[in-house]
Amino acid sequence: MTIIHGPTSHSYFSQRLRLHYVDWGNEDAPPLLMVHGGQDHCRNWDWLAQEMREDYHIIAPDLRGHGDSQWMVGGAYSKFDYIYDIHQLLHQTKMTPVKIIAHSMGGEVCLRFAGTYPELVEKMVIIEGLWEHPDEAAKREEKPLAERVREWEVNLRKTAGRTARRYATLDDAYQRMHEANPHLRPDQARHLTIHGANQNEDGTYSWKFDNYVRTGNPLRTNMEQDQALWSNITCPVLNVRGNESWASAPEKDGQLEYFQQGSYVNIEDAGHWVHHDQLDEFLGHAVPFLNG
To answer: Residue 196 sits in which domain range?
Structure first.
């Protein structure tokens, strides 16, 4: 079993929310920000951070509504709120310009952040942050705004009436974690479960993330606006995808053309969580890219 020597835990405030992040130390080294995906948490980076902490000062936040960060009041988790939270964290820690590794929804958010503040980002490794195929985005955007708002309201009411799933034991939650990603080693799945679940008052366990993060937001950027933000990014961007993933492949769907300095790598025998499924190969691509 891999032994993880963990980071220190910290809080900061953004839009009146108390948000959590971890710091892996080495403050004299160049800054590196790691941002998790939806329904995940900051400790999902532990294996990667353990390998890179000697060369970088790594911080990793729990996005609002995730991990040990506070849940927002209301049900519209906006990507722009996440962008502000990230900017606030970097502002308070004075860790700019910064290099970034981000996964899935975190990658989607960080691409928009870098397109808004290109002067603050030096390099980015984005793991399946371009997950939506342009054709799927176009179908979604064809819906009138009123229809999207009505669908969102239906989802909110369903979420309001749904209680968080409870597991009788932590081992039951671990089994669910392992089923969700069969690539995970048993020690990885247990580590992610320990840091991703809370024990309820009745002794059962539930995942830490707020169920409302699933509902989305009807007021979001469209594909044209996202592409304009990607075009604003001046730093090199390495996009990473697992060949077994459901996410869109950017070298096939045309999305790479919007990056000034965009590159792409597809990793075999990996799903959506490439950095878990094939850590050594991921490091073999990410480390030379960030250090070069």
So the answer is: 8-291
